[in-house]
């Protein structure tokens, strides 16, 4: 609608502009963190130019890449902005107006006519000839007569808000852009025009828009220098249900570290004073997840995590003492650590009041009812009633008492040191040990370069794995010593003996691994046949959920080394391995 020059609603439009900026800023965080923006810039420059050293030019290129990522359709035809708008929710009239404006954003080729006043700029759409009014106080009067491209959001007042970077086009760029214009019609294929223009400007340069203050360059520079805690907090407040976003929580857990935890607490202390709504809470929630993740890693035996919380507390206290952090940072750390200690206290997991699913609540009730026995002070009648209720709940949820025990069990880790920096034949037994005991296992390198294995699983299974690992180590020592006094070894000399001993140990590992696998398969088949349930799968699902909470990145490596094998020695070792017998308590 045409404007009559009235200014009574300009301030309201500036409120919408700020809301738009906050939405665009929040969307940018994930793109910067994921590397999409820099990947796009490098793709433009590949084989044509180096990354520009000029900070303002580099910032403008990043803002162009950001704009393109938001508005380029996927194979399904929807853009990142479309997907964002489908899930975004507004809590105020200004927010709702901002979302409506984003939903109608369009890419325009324009000629700058000039400043209308201190807040408004007049431009002409090159494709349609229409006059547009831009809400912008930064474009200098010297830009009049130049051509540019803009992504504009129309407001209900008839004005437009700019959400793309500012630049000027030379004649060559303008000629390329005009190829996308059909006479008398709005710019068709706006995203293709934007992609072509941005690519050409990245490779061959562009004219700088005369500005009083380049806000987009400041934003791009700020985004490129965000600390991890800041970036994740901005992502958190950009989502409606961040606490339930599985991908975001996983990303936060993977970033858990001493430095990031200290940063999050420090940012919380600063955010208590005039920060955007929800930002302080976001820092607190992220710090809590990092503290919990670090504590879980320490409990699982992950190297270097046992002292992290103590170190973080000491660093935060030192920063506060020297005036480099607000006292709120220390208060948050102490509060979160106290909460963590309470959550780990005996009985809390059974009686905690945290939100649980209906099934979880039923399991907690079964656990409580099973404790009601005559020996615990109940009357015989009360004990019988509790038992009947347990049976009813088990039937209702199709559970067994074994399943209840699995679901309530605590997952822990135990570390087995090897004292070696290189792999040995006995290491071939580690994965079978973990499988036999229904655990997960991974290898880590210690600070001294030595290898150690971490078995992770339900407490009783991890203890079984520890025992079995030590039993197999003792078996290797005893059987290897017996082989050294045997006929094959004594009949060889020099390097042949070393090859024979290695071959024996390779065979021994193979025999033990085969024996464990056979016993495990027989045991599992028997359990499924008798109960109709595969509790191993349930155990693995519970353990895998707990591993996810460690926020660790695992890689699988396949050993391709060729080992010279002395066949007779290998056969003797394999036969000895098949005679290996696990402890009866483990085998049960």
UniProtKB/TrEMBL annotation:
Coiled-coil ranges per UniProt: none
Annotated ranges, domain DUF2786: 361-400
One Pfam family hit: DUF2786
Domain of life: Bacteria
Sequence ranges assigned to domain DUF7168 in this UniProt record: 417-530
Alphabetized InterPro entries for the sequence: DUF2786 (IPR024498), DUF7168 (IPR055592)
Descriptive protein name: DUF2786 domain-containing protein
Annotated source species: Labrys miyagiensis
């Amino acid at each position: 609608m045409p404007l009559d020059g009235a200014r009574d609603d300009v301030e309201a439009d500036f409120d919408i502009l700020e809301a738009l900026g906050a939405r665009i800023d929040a969307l940018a965080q994930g793109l910067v963190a994921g590397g999409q923006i820099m990947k796009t810039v490098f793709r433009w420059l590949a084989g044509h130019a180096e990354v520009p050293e000029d900070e303002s030019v580099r910032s403008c290129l990043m803002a162009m890449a950001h704009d393109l990522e938001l508005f380029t359709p996927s194979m399904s035809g929807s853009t990142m902005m479309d997907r964002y708008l489908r899930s975004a929710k507004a809590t105020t009239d200004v927010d709702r107006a901002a979302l409506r404006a984003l939903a109608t954003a369009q890419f325009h080729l324009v000629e700058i006519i000039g400043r209308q006043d201190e807040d408004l700029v007049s431009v002409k759409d090159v494709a349609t000839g229409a006059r547009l009014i831009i809400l912008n106080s930064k474009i200098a009067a010297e830009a009049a007569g130049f051509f540019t491209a803009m992504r504009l959001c129309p407001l209900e007042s008839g004005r437009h808000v700019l959400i793309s970077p500012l630049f000027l086009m030379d004649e060559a760029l303008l000629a390329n852009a005009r190829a996308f214009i059909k006479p008398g019609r709005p710019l068709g294929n706006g995203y293709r025009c934007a992609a072509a223009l941005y690519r050409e400007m990245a490779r061959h340069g562009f004219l700088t828009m005369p500005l009083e203050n380049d806000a987009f360059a400041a934003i791009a520079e700020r985004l490129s220098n965000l600390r991890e805690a800041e970036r994740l907090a901005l992502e958190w407040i950009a989502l409606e249900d961040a606490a339930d976003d599985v991908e975001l929580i996983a990303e936060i857990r993977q970033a858990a570290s001493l430095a990031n935890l200290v940063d999050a607490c420090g940012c919380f202390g600063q955010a208590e004073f005039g920060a955007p709504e929800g930002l302080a809470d976001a820092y607190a929630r992220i710090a809590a997840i990092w503290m919990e993740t670090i504590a879980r890693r320490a409990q699982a035996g992950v190297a270097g995590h046992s002292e992290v919380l103590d170190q973080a507390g000491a660093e935060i206290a030192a920063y506060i003492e020297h005036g480099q952090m607000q006292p709120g940072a220390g208060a948050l750390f102490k509060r979160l650590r106290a909460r963590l200690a309470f959550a780990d206290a005996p009985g809390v997991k059974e009686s905690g009041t945290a939100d649980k699913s209906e099934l979880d609540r039923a399991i907690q009730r079964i656990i409580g009812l099973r404790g009601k026995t005559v020996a615990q002070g109940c009357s015989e009648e009360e004990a019988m009633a509790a038992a009947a209720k347990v049976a009813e709940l088990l039937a209702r949820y199709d559970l067994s008492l074994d399943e209840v025990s699995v679901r309530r069990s605590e997952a822990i880790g135990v570390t087995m040191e090897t004292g070696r920096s290189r792999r040995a034949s006995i290491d071939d037994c580690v994965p079978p040990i973990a499988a036999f005991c229904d655990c997960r296992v991974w290898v880590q390198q210690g600070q001294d370069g030595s290898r150690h294995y971490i078995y992770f699983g339900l407490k009783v299974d991890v203890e079984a794995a520890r025992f079995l690992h030590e039993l197999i180590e003792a078996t290797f020592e005893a059987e290897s010593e017996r082989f050294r006094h045997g006929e094959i070894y004594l009949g060889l000399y020099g390097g042949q003996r070393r090859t024979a001993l290695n071959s024996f140990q390779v065979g021994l590992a193979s025999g033990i691994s085969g024996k464990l696998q056979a016993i495990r398969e027989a045991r599992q088949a028997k359990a499924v046949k008798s109960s109709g349930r595969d509790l191993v799968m349930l155990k693995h699902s519970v353990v895998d959920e707990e591993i996810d909470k460690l926020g660790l990145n695992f890689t699988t490596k396949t050993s391709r080394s060729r080992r010279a094998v002395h066949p007779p020695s290998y056969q003797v070792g394999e036969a000895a391995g098949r005679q290996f017998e696990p402890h009866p308590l483990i085998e049960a």
